[in-house]
Write a structure and sequence with these properties.
two-stranded parallel sheet; alpha/beta; single chain; 186 residues; 6 helices
Length: 186
């Protein structure tokens, strides 16, 4: 399901400790996409999937969005709570993305827990697919979803970046939910 018109979209590039952040905003200042510079092609694919062909004009996101990005990476983990996002996607995807925003910083959920949170406990795979199609990474914190048993699983921004984000949100400590040992990656 695509919105009829996204209007003009602006692409801003903001430095962060884990690489340049790409932020796409609409004419009302709502964030339509957030990704990292090394995944720009993926971000553009998701935008096309959600909105059809779009043109991204280089420019600056509203100062409140830029400040929220800077504040988050400086340690203010609540900085994104008031940032408005607007996404395409199906009703199911938007339910998953809304539930992602309910996961507190510093905590994680499994795909099964996320499926249960949206009232679809048997839709674990569909939740995983929706999580992977999230166009607004970090603000809609898909990095907070992990595999069963605490396994660190795929992240569109790369597993090392996911590990960094989780450690950042845990107060800078090493993120490792697995007792006594190594974390396997799927």
């Amino acid at each position: 399901m695509r919105p009829e018109n996204t209007g003009p979209l602006t692409l801003d590039r903001i430095p962060s400790p884990v690489g340049e952040v790409l932020v796409v905003v609409d004419g009302d200042g709502a964030v339509r996409a957030l990704d990292f510079h090394d995944f720009e092609a993926r971000m553009r694919r998701l935008l096309r999937r959600h909105y059809g062909e779009v043109v991204l004009a280089p420019g600056r996101a509203p100062e409140a969005v830029r400040q929220a990005v800077a504040a988050y990476f400086a340690g203010d983990l609540a900085a994104f709570e008031t940032v408005e996002v607007e996404t395409g996607g199906t009703d199911f995807q938007r339910r998953v993305w809304a539930a992602l925003r309910d996961i507190p910083a510093g905590e994680t959920r499994s795909y099964g827990q996320l499926a249960a949170a949206i009232g679809a406990p048997k839709a674990v795979r569909a939740v995983g697919l929706a999580n992977g199609a999230n166009p607004v990474g970090v603000i809609v914190p898909c990095h907070r979803v992990i595999g069963a048993g605490g396994k660190l699983t795929g992240y569109a921004g790369g597993l090392e970046r996911k590990r960094w984000l989780l450690a950042h949100e845990a107060g800078g400590g090493l993120w490792n939910p697995a007792p006594q040992g190594s974390m396997s990656e799927e």
